[in-house]
Amino acid sequence: MLDLNLIREHPDVVRAALRKRHDDESLLDRVLELDKKRRQVLQQVESLRAERNRVSKEIGRTKDAAEREAKIAAMRELKAQLDTLEQELRAVEGQLHDVLARIPNIPHESVPEGVDERDNVIVKTWGEPKTFDFDPMPHWDLGPMLDIIDFERAAKISGSRFYILKNDGARLQRALITWMLDVHTREHGYTEVYPPALVRSRALFGTGNLPKFADVLYKDHEEDLWLIPTAEVPVTNLYADEILPPGRLPIYHTAYTPCFRREKVAAGRDVRGIKRVHQFDKVELVKFVEPERGWDELQSLLANAETIVQRLGLPYRVVLLSTGDLGFSAAITYDIEVWAPGSQEWLEVSSCSWFTDFQARRANIRYRPEKGAKPRFVHTLNGSGLALPRTMIAILETYQQSDGSVIIPEVLRPYMGGQERILPPK
Fold first, then answer.
1. Could you tell me the end-to-end alpha-carbon distance of the chain, in angstroms, rounded to an integer?
2. In DSSP terms, which residues pair with 125 in a beta bridge?
3. Active-site residues: which are they?
């Protein structure tokens, strides 16, 4: 959420940001209108409260019964007026909060302006896409052939956009998750947490998923519980409504969780394979830092995610998202996309974002720079380190061999009991 003082004092900055994002500028106008109305009503409320206190003191000092009764009657009328105005104030404040919550973050100055993903900018490439002396298979053919992915039985029990990993497919994913967590905790300085996969709506509001993206989330209809779309949600909210003491920052967390998304926006797209599904696994990286450290922390976060892709030997590119493709809460985002030779496309396996204080304001996460200092909002960052199953897709399609087998990346072999290949069933 943006600072209301920023909107009030520099509306031109916010309007320019909305234009760059191709978002609804009327939201800003509505915020300014409601903020003006709120201050007007608040002034009336405070005036009546002061009058109430004055009259109350006079009643206590009044000896004459008739005069006293007249003042009490006036107090009743004043109280009725005050009750009405306080109700109006609460209503205006609620409306202001709701509209303010729908304004996206201001893009960082380095973010290129654009309409959609076609305006994203490739800022780095690593490795060369592998060439084959045979036609590489897409994973939706390769997986069933190796008996490691089962689409038919998944559809039978859960419907479309679900899949079952089995045999060496399940082992490969488990190996990936464990190895990635080990790298991030042992080498990159993250503390591992395992959070709940169900959260309250307050947590989703804190990260910016609610109210804007309610239609792509799964909700329990009897309780205020939602299935998480990413570990970013519970991990970011670990420190909601807290003031972190001096010296506590930075905080780095990594978490493995299942993730759940309805994929309504992808209706009719990517229906084959495991690229865009309702349930998937992911290792997430989340940072809480001091504001002046934000840019450097973003670069190190990106480097942490890149390390994983490089050690897997997967060619990739880093893409700076344009304003038209930038997420609601993010000020800047770099995507890491790996090449999938069977599917013949680049697949996003990580989005590394800096949210400035946008999420911290929504979740009320603050820190005290030094003893006795006024609390400030932290800056939050997160990125996948990495997301599955797209990492699985890239591994299977990149390391497939002409005999139908798949070579297991060397870094994963210790996590698979020394196994070097996934072989077709005999």
1. 57
2. 317
3. 261, 276, 348, 351, 390
